[in-house]
């Protein structure tokens, strides 16, 4: 079984993330969305909330599982029998950081391959932090996050 891990903070999940999850779920037998328990980063949603929001919007994707993780991503991937880390690339500016992480992960475990998928052009400008900023100041986040999460995000502010 070809299992991929799609990691992130997902604070909160955006339509850009969901696009990668949906497309990734068609390529791999199983896709594990790995939600980082951020210890040093202040998150708007706690780990349980972030996992629940992702479960809610991926419930129709039967081969998608949502789990939280702490520590090294390559260790999480190995425990879950995955040899693929799936990442979305939006822009050139993502590249440097992602390339560095891919090389570090490959150094930590050469058996695990990082695979990049280009984000759909419709979402190339969407990020969790920009969504939070727009929501904070009362802007419209429709189209940026899955519709069923809009009120939960707005309620946080
Ligand atoms: O959504 P984010 O915050 O950009 O996701 C970053 C993430 C979770 C992919 C990254 O921080 C990560 O993999 N953290 C786990 C720690 C780790 O394995 N570090 C070594 C690679 S640099």
From TrEMBL:
Substrate binds at residues 9, 41, 73, 87. Pfam families: CTP_transf_like. Gene3D superfamilies: HUPs. Its EC number is 2.7.7.3. It is an enzyme of class 2 (transferase). One of its GO terms (cellular component) is cytoplasm. It catalyses: (R)-4'-phosphopantetheine + ATP + H(+) = 3'-dephospho-CoA + diphosphate. CDD domains: PPAT. InterPro entries: Cyt_trans-like (IPR004821), PPAT (IPR001980), Rossmann-like_a/b/a_fold (IPR014729). It comes from the Bacteria. The record marks 17 as: Transition state stabilizer. The keyword Cell membrane does not apply. It is found in: Cytoplasm. Keywords: ATP-binding, Coenzyme A biosynthesis, Cytoplasm, Magnesium, Nucleotide-binding, Nucleotidyltransferase, Transferase. GO terms for molecular function: ATP binding; pantetheine-phosphate adenylyltransferase activity. Reversibly transfers an adenylyl group from ATP to 4'-phosphopantetheine, yielding dephospho-CoA (dPCoA) and pyrophosphate. HAMAP family: PPAT_bact. This is Phosphopantetheine adenylyltransferase. It comes from Clostridium sartagoforme AAU1. The lineage of its organism: Bacteria, Bacillati, Bacillota, Clostridia, Eubacteriales. The gene is coaD.
């Amino acid at each position: 079984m070809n299992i991929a891990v799609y990691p992130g903070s997902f604070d909160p999940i955006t339509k850009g993330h969901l696009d990668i999850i949906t497309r990734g779920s068609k390529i791999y037998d199983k896709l594990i969305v790995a939600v980082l328990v951020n210890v040093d980063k202040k998150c708007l949603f706690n780990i349980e909330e972030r996992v629940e929001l992702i479960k809610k919007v991926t419930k129709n994707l039967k081969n998608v599982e949502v789990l939280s993780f702490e520590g090294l991503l390559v260790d999480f991937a190995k425990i879950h029998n995955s040899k693929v880390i799936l990442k979305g690339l939006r822009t050139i500016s993502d590249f440097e950081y992602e390339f560095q992480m891919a090389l570090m992960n490959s150094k930590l475990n050469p058996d695990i391959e990082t695979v990049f998928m280009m984000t759909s052009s419709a979402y190339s400008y969407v990020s969790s932090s920009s969504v939070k900023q727009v929501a904070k100041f009362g802007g419209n986040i429709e189209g940026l996050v899955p519709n069923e999460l809009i009120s939960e995000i707005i309620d946080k502010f």
